[in-house]
From TrEMBL:
Belongs to the UPP synthase family. GO terms for cellular component: cytosol. The keyword Ribonucleoprotein does not apply. Substrate binds at G17, N18, G19, R20, W21, R29, H33, W65, R67, R166, R172, L173, S174. This is Isoprenyl transferase.
Amino acid sequence: MQTTPDHKLHVAIIMDGNGRWAEARGLPRPAGHQVGADTVRAIVRSAIARDIGALSLYAFSTYNWRRSEAEVAGMMALLRHFLLVEARQLRDANVRISILGRRDRLPLGLVKAIAAAERSTAACTGLHLRVAIDYSARDAILAAAAAGPEAIAAELGTEDVDFLIRTGGDQRLSDFMLWECAQAELYFTRVKWPDFGPAEFDTALAEYGTRVRSFGGNVEPVRAMAG
Ligand code: IPE
Ligand code: IPE
Ligand code: MG
């Protein structure tokens, strides 16, 4: 299933802890999101260097609208800025960008940046970078179910997550990729997202390499990752 030698990893990350990182430094929460955006850049570079097949990042959930208007506006602006600034470099690095989640509640500027980033990287064949914005896994499953069984397979079934990382210390899924994580290995770290660098990413991937994935079988379990 997910264990053939040429299978490229699908890593998903719940990027949590930006606010607490900032508060611990006496900074406003948006400062944590700013530094968190730098972490995204670094981890995407790492994922490219490690030949990871797909990287799915949870950037904004449908529940995050409950936050203050100022924080939400800041996060939307940051996402737009990230896509506008990074899309060209990511295209040059052969990264295909896809955005998951609903778009009808996003600011128009962000919707345009999403469309431009997806369009300009559509032909890229390297890392598939998937960013979840205004995303809920339950909503995604319901939408696929409403579209019919084939849509479930096409929309959800082909993107199984191998390894799910959550930073920030909490051990929950917060409605992220519930379908795709059916057989995912889970990894929780107390490191807050702004402090999660390539070294922490390597530590996590090394841990994944020690996991034995049996997919319910009991014969010859296969190591998650060779080497
Ligand atoms: C994660 O950090 C950022 C997103 C939700 C996108 P938080 O803003 O949730 O930070 P904490 O969990 O409050 O520290
Ligand atoms: C999870 O973080 C969502 C994202 C990273 C986008 P939250 O901080 O929003 O989630 P809860 O409140 O811990 O569930
Ligand atoms: Mg949080």
